[in-house]
């Protein structure tokens, strides 16, 4: 019943969008005659949108868990419905009584309205759960072997009792015809013999599989599959859990297996920490203003650039195929992992015969252009809007790229939200060493201000036009501000190793 309430909410947005578009066109003073003239057009739009939204399934999403994929679905559904509305009304009435600018404004308002309602529900849910107080990533990443009723039961169990603690990354099955089909929104991503390739692809995205859950009776699996699974477990690819055996399908195992309630109970244990530094960060004068700028700026850009985003998605789909978006697991604000999205810029890593394709052959002219102009990062406006990123800040790192030997520096670096661009990016980007980037990120954290953010944004625009160039003066200034001297500007190998520095001096001296 609730999903139909959401469906009706979408149609209410569609109904009011033409009238609001007319009001905007006429400087908020529309005449009664024009309102009457546009009413049939608005009602026709509701009927056509009702059909399009049902087909697209925009109402099936649980709004409090809305993601960037749901925003893309809304964008697509609204675009198709608007095209159908214009075709129908032009065919029968030549859009009589409808000013030509109204449909364009209406499209923007409908997309913005539907997205904002979903985003509001998501942010309210996030507020009530007080997720800002949770640090780290305690989730266990699992693969499921088998497509059957036991798999469905397991997924429902995890959804009800271990949401946020166990993340199902995909399903594998012996039947190759099930590939790319979905069960409870989780895709079948391959067969058991493809597990090494699947793990490699997930590893690129920053995902490390902890456990393989087998929902088929283990003895019923082909002998070759059983041998492979046991071999991969011995090689520490993952641990295996014979879930069907725990349900009593194999009494010899069930008698000695721990209770699933015990396993999930251990995973539901959470440790909350309250740090004085966090309270200090929230009280900083620029912090609230920076977040307000992020919200307003990202919202405005999403609305203005929505045609560009839609066009880019279409170009990527035609040039590279599906999926349009690529994601990776990165470490973000206060060490909390999140999934960062970009437009896809590389073709599949394997051809139809399973042969690996060299990296330099996976890019096209379109993907090179998207990377050069940073248009592949347009989906990250969503991350800025929901608070996972900021316009300016240190770029988010892959989990495995976090240097373990100097945690104090990394912890300080993550006391601000990761950015779409940053001080390290405009002063050399990928051409500077990791040590230089870390020192410049900490320099930005300690010097953060509206003025510095504006300088970085202007330098970013120049960098997109002219390309990346190392600024040795800015790098040296960052080292000097932290009390250290960079040994050379030209030989990266002689850059000081942060792990060998007196960390207490670096972290303890706030200017």
Strand content: 5-15%
Strands ordered across the widest β-sheet: 3-4-2-1-5-6
How much helix is in the residues? Answer: 40-55%
Rounded average pLDDT: 79
For the secondary structure, the number of strands is 11
Derived structural class: alpha/beta
Number of DSSP helical runs? 19
Q: For the terminal residues, how far apart are their CA atoms? A: 57 Å
> What is the 3D form?
globular
Protein architecture, described:
With 511 residues, the chain is an alpha/beta fold. The longest helix is centred in the middle third of the chain and has 35 residues, at 286-320. The chain is globular, with a radius of gyration of 26 Å. The protein has 3 domains: 2-129, no CATH class; 140-267, Rossmann fold (3-Layer(aba) Sandwich); 276-508, no CATH class. Helix 2 (32-56) crosses helix 3 (68-93) and helix 3 (68-93) runs antiparallel to helix 4. The strands form 3 sheets. A 6-stranded mixed sheet has the order 3-4-2-1-5-6, with helices on both faces. It is built from 19 helices and 11 strands. It has helices at 2-25, 32-56, 68-93, 102-129, 149-161, 195-204, 223-234, 243-249, 251-254, 260-267, 276-283, 286-320, 365-373, 380-386, 407-413, 434-447, 450-466, 472-481, 503-508, and strands spanning 140-145, 166-172, 182-183, 186-190, 211-214, 239-242, 325-331, 337-343, 390-392, 397-398, 419-421.
């Amino acid at each position: 019943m609730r999903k139909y309430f959401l469906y009706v909410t979408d149609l209410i947005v569609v109904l009011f969008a033409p009238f609001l578009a007319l009001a905007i066109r006429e400087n908020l003073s529309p005449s009664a005659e024009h309102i009457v003239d546009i009413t049939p057009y608005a009602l026709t739009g509701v009927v056509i949108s009702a059909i399009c939204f049902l087909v697209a399934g925009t109402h099936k999403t649980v709004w409090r868990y809305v993601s960037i994929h749901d925003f893309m679905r809304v964008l697509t559904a609204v675009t198709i419905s608007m095209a159908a509305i214009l075709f129908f009304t032009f065919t029968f009435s030549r859009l009589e009584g409808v000013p030509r600018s109204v449909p364009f404004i209406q499209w923007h308002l409908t997309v913005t309205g539907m997205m904002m309602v979903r985003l509001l529900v998501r942010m309210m849910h996030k507020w009530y759960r007080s997720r800002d107080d949770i640090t780290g990533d305690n989730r266990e990443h699992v693969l499921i072997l088998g497509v059957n009723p036991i798999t469905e039961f397991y997924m429902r169990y995890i959804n009800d009792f271990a949401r946020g603690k166990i993340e199902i990354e995909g399903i594998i099955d012996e039947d190759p015809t099930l590939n790319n089909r979905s069960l409870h929104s989780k895709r079948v991503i391959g067969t058991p013999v493809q597990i090494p390739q699947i793990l490699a692809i997930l590893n690129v995205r920053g995902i490390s599989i902890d456990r393989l859950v087998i929902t088929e009776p283990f003895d019923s699996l082909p002998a070759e599959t059983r041998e492979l699974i046991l071999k991969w477990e011995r090689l520490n690819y993952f641990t295996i859990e014979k879930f069907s055996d725990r349900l009593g399908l194999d009494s010899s195992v069930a008698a000695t297996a721990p209770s699933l309630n015990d396993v999930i109970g251990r995973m539901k244990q959470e440790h909350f920490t309250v740090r004085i530094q966090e309270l200090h960060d929230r009280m900083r004068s620029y912090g609230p203003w920076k977040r307000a700028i992020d919200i307003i700026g990202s919202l405005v850009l999403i609305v203005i650039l929505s045609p560009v985003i839609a066009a880019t998605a279409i170009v990527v789909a035609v040039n590279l195929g599906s999926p349009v978006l690529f994601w990776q697991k990165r470490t973000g604000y206060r060490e909390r992992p999140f999934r960062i999205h970009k437009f896809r810029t590389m073709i599949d890593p394997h051809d139809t015969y399973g042969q690996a394709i060299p990296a330099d052959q996976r890019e096209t002219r379109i993907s090179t252009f998207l990377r050069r102009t940073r248009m592949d990062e347009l989906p990250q406006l969503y991350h800025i809007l929901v608070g996972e990123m900021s316009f300016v800040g240190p770029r988010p790192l892959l989990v495995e790229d976090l240097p373990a030997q100097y945690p104090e520096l990394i912890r300080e670096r993550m006391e601000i939200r990761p950015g779409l661009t940053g001080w390290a990016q405009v002063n050399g980007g990928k051409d500077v060493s990791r040590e230089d980037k870390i020192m410049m990120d900490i320099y930005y954290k300690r010097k953060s201000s509206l003025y510095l953010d504006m300088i970085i944004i202007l330098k970013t625009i120049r960098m997109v036009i002219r390309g990346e160039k190392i600024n040795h003066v800015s790098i040296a200034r960052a080292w000097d501000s932290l009390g250290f001297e960079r040994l050379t500007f030209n030989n990266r190998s002689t850059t000081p190793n942060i792990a060998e520095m007196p960390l207490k001096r670096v972290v303890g001296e706030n200017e």
